[in-house]
Specification:
single chain, alpha+beta, Alpha-Beta Plaits, four-stranded antiparallel sheet, 7 helices, 20% strand, globular
Length: 138
Amino acid sequence: MTDLQRTLVLLKPDAVRRGLAGAVLARYEAKGLAIVAMDLRHADAAMADRHYADHVEQPWYPGLRDFFTSGPLVALVLEGPTVIEVVRQMNGATNSAVATPGTIRGDYSVSNRENLVHASDSEESAAREIALWFPNLA
């Protein structure tokens, strides 16, 4: 039996604005990952600050907060074997300009900030982020 993991994924405002949510979701589903929870939301500044708590003091953070709160996003929890690593590989490098073709960022984005997707980077981050966005699953 395979151990299943869960991860938080956010389809950021640029993905929603550009009509890419369905295409990105289709990639995750085609990979065999299960959608456990999904919700269309508009994050406010307080939610952005909680989500990006480790970055709030960075000089570049205000621009990220402005982008993150600029429109609706899709929050979802995906489940599957080694899902954290799988999703991060599928998403590609954070800086989309250098993301490998075939990844979500490599195929659809050319920005470092507006890079379409967020995914938890560890089991600890996944637990914290899922509890933040979907407290009923924690």
